[in-house]
Amino acid sequence: MEQLAFIVTQELGKLAKWLRILGFDCVYFSKKKEADLIIQALRDKRILVTRKAEHAKHKGIRIVVIKHDYVEEQMEQLVKKLDLGLKENNFFRRCVECNTLLEDIEKEKIKQKVPDYVFRTQNFFKRCPDCGKIFWQGTHWDMVGKWLSEKGLKK
């Protein structure tokens, strides 16, 4: 199955983070030049996700124009429009800040980098090799799964 990749325009920053949480390769495009956006979408074979309907005039790229204001509704629209197969084993595989694939890291190596409570209560950690951010399975993990189940979006 084809692994979808996205490029999300600057007005959809929260949606970009959600796509990364769900395991999708998602570039957050913050530049102003429309030509650069289209070139990157074509070059990297990314689906353009935007609020700007005028981007739909471009041929040769897949575009989803988001119609909703709230990130939960935006995700619901995108998942249904593209029939995204959301699987929990893909969740939290990418850094929500920089989109890099996360790596497992030994618990002892991050002792000084996380709060004491987190270190005592968690056993599995991931680290972003690019920005160094540390991740663990906190309450947000359960909240994401619960929300997707409630909306009927998880397969």
Describe the fold and architecture.
The protein has 155 residues and is of the alpha/beta class. The protein has two domains: 5-90, Rossmann fold; 103-136, no CATH class. 33% of the residues lie in helices and 17% in strands. The chain contains five helices and seven strands, in the order E-H-E-H-E-E-H-E-H-E-E-H. The chain has helices spanning 13-21, 34-44, 71-82, 116-121, 139-151; strands at 5-9, 25-29, 47-50, 63-65, 103-105, 125-127, 134-136. The strands form two sheets. It has a four-stranded parallel sheet with strand order 2-1-3-4, with helices on both faces. It has a three-stranded antiparallel sheet with strand order 5-6-7, with no helix packed on it. Strand 6 (125-127) and strand 7 form a beta hairpin. Helix 1 packs across helix 3. The longest helix is centred in the C-terminal third of the chain and has 13 residues, at 139-151. It is globular, with a radius of gyration of 17 Å.
